Structures are given as structure tokens and as C-alpha cells.
């Protein structure tokens, strides 16, 4: 929840004007961001402590005095009896378990509700907001669109799924604040979209990655129209797919990063397309346990929300903070890298430590592949086996695709190729028809099927006690 001072600046001084917001964003000193974060963090902690039995219980369990907490990892304040904050409140917000607490975590009257699209939990989590929080997102969203080049005279179309998902509604309020035309097609089949959209000459398109790849294929046969820019959200997109779409439409495609829990975008690319600038006045981002290269799970605390504030919420997304300062208008906002994978998709197996970005690189040079792919890790006998499932374009042959994948793996990751040639791990490539891998909105890139086996083994003692 916002401190009165930062609220005044945001609502009254900056207001609805995207240009004023950008003017301010270009000039605000780093100390302003950090001070505002600290003020709003403390206000949020006190707000949930006064309103929510769930948070009070959590604070008590971890022996945290909400009145003393100043920042998410404030060791000095929390190093009194009991464990320090890192790790503890993150446990409380394991995304897989939020649904058990969602009612208790709502601390003010909700007016809007949505569901998460995460892949960790079989049950979707429910997240609630107020109308004012929606308008708040709209003001920032409008500034973000303006920074990328959207203007009131543009004609925008949204092909985002509208069912239980908040990406569409946040885009709507951003477009309303900006004042441009927005038509919401929702996520209809690309062929139907093409038929119905072609007359409007939309020059700004907001889409999902796998959907735009399919639309691009149709447009490749029937013709594109001039598009100023595309905005893609909801899922990671490989650079290969981005280039393909950009070249076909002769446009610029920008990615945004966010999730239902963050309500709209938590980060956005700028014209440099080199990492996501983070919305640091609305969230406190951390990577509490980075590896040698700085990669780790991104954790955030909401700083402006009243209805369902989230403290140290685990996103399951693995990224790193980027070094250096970008030379764009959003340079004061720190960047994170593209998401390299989900926590549950970073798998150690006979092939090595694998994660989704590696396969994306392997597929870069392979022709004949459609957008979707999935890797299964299994253990049929004593050794691990990797099944690489790829969707093939029309006319592509399974044999040549498999050869190209093996060659690319050898060039890029020789250690892994060696593990295969040494017989430490079997590797198969299975080509399937387009559109067969995806069953929901998101497709899990790496699935470790050994988990079930390991879990069953763990339940049985390996030796009978004498
Ligand atoms: Zn930038």
C-alpha cells in the first residue's frame, strides 16, 4: 500500500498524463526510487498486519515484528530471536499454495477478480483487486505504451485471451487513459482473426507469442498490412520467433513481463529490446538466492496494492538483474534479463543441467520447426532419457530435423553432446504435427517425469533395518 506522500505524487502531480509520467521517469533520481520503495514497503507491511489474520499468523510464526520491518531482507531488524526474513515469507507465498490462502490474503473490498495462468499448481489461484488499482495500472500502462511509440491516433487490437485473465482488462484501461482506439478481438482462431481484422488496418497489435506465429503464417500467404509495433505478453518468446514475426510484418515486436499476480506488466522492454525495465515504484523485486551468474528466482513485494498485497511473492521465474545502464527514457528503472526458465523447469539430468533457454538456442539454427516444443526427462531403465518433442512445419522431414538438432547441440553444448555419445543419457527427437503439443494457454517447456519415480522410491526405505 502506498504511503500518503507517494500517493499524492502519483495521483495528483503525475495524474493521467503519459508524457508527464515519462518526463518524471527520465529524471527521477535513484534515491527517490529507493526511498519511495522503503516508505511504501513499510506502509504495506503495517497494512496487512492490521488487516489480515493470515499475515499476522505468518509474522508470528517467523517471529517478525511488523513494526520493525523496513525492507524485505532487513537482516539487522530481524536478526533477533527467530530466523531472518529471507526464505520465510517466501515460503508463505509459495505460488503453488496461494489458493489455500487467497481469501485470507484479501484485506480490503475486492471489485475485480482473476485467475493465474501459472503452470506449477494444478488449481488456478485467485487474485483480487479494486477498480482504483486497475486505474492505477492504466496510468502506468499508458505511459509504457507511449514510451514504445503508441499515440492517441493509433488503431490498436487486442487478441489476448479474456477468460478469467487480467492482461486484457489492464490493456483496456491503459488504452482508455491514452485515448487511442482499441478493439478487443480476444483470442479467436488466427484464421478468423485475419478475416475480420484485415479491414480495420490495425497498426498496433497486442498478442500472445504462439498465436502471433500462427497468424504470421496465414499473413505470409495472404498478405500483411502496415503495423507500427506489436506488443507480446503472457509467455516467453524465443528470439528466433521474434525475428520471424518482425521480418514478416516489417515491424518491431516488444515483449512485456508480468503475471496475473503482478496485475499487468511488471516489466517491459524498451526500444533496445535488451531486458525488461522493472516497474520499481510498484514492486520491490529481489533475487534472494542468485547462482554464480546471478540467475535465481525472481521474488516481488507489491508496493501500491490495498486489496490483496503480496509480500515476497515467489514468481517461479528465473532471471538475473542486468548490469549497466540502458540509454533509453526508462534508464532509471533497473532491468532483468529475459526469463531463462521456470524453477520447476531447470532440471539436472544425464544430459547435464538443462533449462529452456538452451533448447531455444539449439533450435535457432534448425529449419523446419514450428513455434512449440517440449522436452521430457524420463528414466526408462537405469539411465535418464531425453525426449525432444518438436512441432514440424509442413514438408519438414523428421530425419533432417533430428540431424540438425544433434548437430546444433554438438556445436553449442559439446559437453552435453558428449554425455549422449558416452551413453550417459539417451536422446530422442520426436516430430509431431503442428498444434498438438499445447493443451492449455501455457506450454511447459521441460517436464521432469522422473519426479514421480523418485518420489515413489523415496517412500520406500532402501534397506530393511535389522
Ligand atoms: Zn531501455
* β-strand number: 20
**Fraction of residues in helix:** 25-40%
Compute the CA-based radius of gyration: 23 Å
Percentage beta strand: 15-25%
Structural classification: alpha/beta
Strand order of the largest sheet: 4-3-5-6-7-8-9-13
Number of helices: 16
Q: Please give the alpha-carbon distance between the first and last residues.
A: 59 Å
Bound small molecules, which ones? zinc ion
Mean pLDDT: 85
Can you describe what's shown?
The structure is a single chain. The longest helix is centred in the N-terminal third of the chain and has 22 residues. With 466 residues, the protein is an alpha/beta fold. The radius of gyration is 23 Å and the shape is globular. A hairpin with a 2-residue loop joins strand 15 and strand 16. 41% of the residues are buried. The site of zinc ion has 7 residues, from loops.
Amino acid at each position: 500500500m502506498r504511503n500518503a506522500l507517494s500517493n499524492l505524487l502519483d495521483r495528483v502531480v503525475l495524474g493521467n498524463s503519459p508524457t508527464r509520467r515519462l518526463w518524471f521517469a527520465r529524471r527521477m533520481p535513484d534515491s527517490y526510487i529507493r526511498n519511495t520503495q522503503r516508505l511504501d514497503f513499510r506502509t504495506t507491511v503495517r497494512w496487512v498486519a492490521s488487516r489480515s489474520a493470515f499475515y499476522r499468523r505468518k509474522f508470528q510464526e517467523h517471529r517478525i515484528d511488523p513494526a520493525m520491518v523496513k525492507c524485505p531482507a532487513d537482516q539487522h531488524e530481524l536478526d533477533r530471536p527467530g530466523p531472518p526474513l529471507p526464505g520465510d515469507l517466501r515460503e508463505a507465498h509459495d505460488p503453488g499454495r496461494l489458493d489455500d490462502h487467497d481469501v485470507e490474503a484479501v484485506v480490503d473490498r475486492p471489485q475485480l477478480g482473476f485467475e493465474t495462468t501459472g503452470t506449477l499448481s494444478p488449481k488456478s489461484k485467485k487474485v483480487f483487486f479494486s477498480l482504483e488499482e486497475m486505474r492505477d495500472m492504466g496510468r502506468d500502462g499508458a505511459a509504457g505504451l507511449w514510451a514504445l511509440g503508441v499515440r492517441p491516433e493509433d488503431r490498436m487490437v487486442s487478441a489476448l485471451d479474456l477468460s478469467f485473465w487480467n492482461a486484457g482488462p489492464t490493456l483496456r484501461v491503459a488504452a482508455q487513459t491514452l485515448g487511442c482506439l482499441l478493439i478487443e478481438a480476444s483470442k479467436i482462431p488466427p484464421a478468423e482473426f485475419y478475416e475480420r481484422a484485415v479491414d480495420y488496418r490495425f497498426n498496433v497489435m497486442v498478442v500472445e507469442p504462439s498465436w502471433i506465429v500462427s497468424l504470421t503464417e496465414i499473413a505470409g500467404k495472404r498478405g500483411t498490412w502496415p503495423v507500427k509495433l506489436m506488443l507480446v505478453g503472457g509467455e516467453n518468446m524465443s528470439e528466433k520467433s521474434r525475428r520471424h514475426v518482425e521480418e514478416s510484418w516489417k515491424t518491431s515486436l516488444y515483449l512485456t513481463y508480468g503475471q496475473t499476480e503482478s496485475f499487468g506488466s511488471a516489466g517491459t522492454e524498451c526500444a533496445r529490446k535488451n531486458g525488461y525495465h522493472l516497474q520499481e515504484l510498484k514492486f520491490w523485486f529481489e533475487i534472494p538466492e542468485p547462482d554464480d551468474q546471478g540467475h535465481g528466482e525472481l521474488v516481488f513485494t507489491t508496493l501500491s496494492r490495498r486489496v490483496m498485497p503480496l509480500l515476497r511473492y515467489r514468481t517461479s521465474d528465473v532471471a538475473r538483474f542486468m548490469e549497466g545502464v540502458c540509454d533509453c527514457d526508462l534508464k532509471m528503472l533497473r532491468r532483468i534479463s529475459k526469463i531463462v526458465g521456470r524453477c520447476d523447469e531447470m532440471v539436472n539430468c544425464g544430459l547435464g543441467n538443462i533449462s529452456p533457454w538452451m533448447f531455444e538456442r539449439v533450435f535457432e539454427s534448425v529449419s523446419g520447426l514450428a513455434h512449440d516444443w517440449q522436452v521430457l526427462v524420463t528414466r526408462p531403465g537405469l539411465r535418464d532419457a531425453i525426449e525432444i518433442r518438436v512441432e514440424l512445419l509442413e514438408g519438414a522431414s523428421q530425419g533432417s530435423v533430428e540431424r540438425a538438432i544433434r548437430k546444433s547441440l554438438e556445436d553449442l553444448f559439446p559437453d552435453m553432446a558428449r554425455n549422449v555419445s558416452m551413453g550417459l543419457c539417451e536422446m530422442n527427437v520426436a516430430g509431431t504435427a503442428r498444434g498438438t503439443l499445447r493443451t492449455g494457454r501455457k506450454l511447459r517447456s521441460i517436464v521432469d517425469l522422473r519426479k514421480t519415480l523418485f518420489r515413489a522410491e523415496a517412500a520406500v526405505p532402501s534397506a530393511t533395518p535389522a
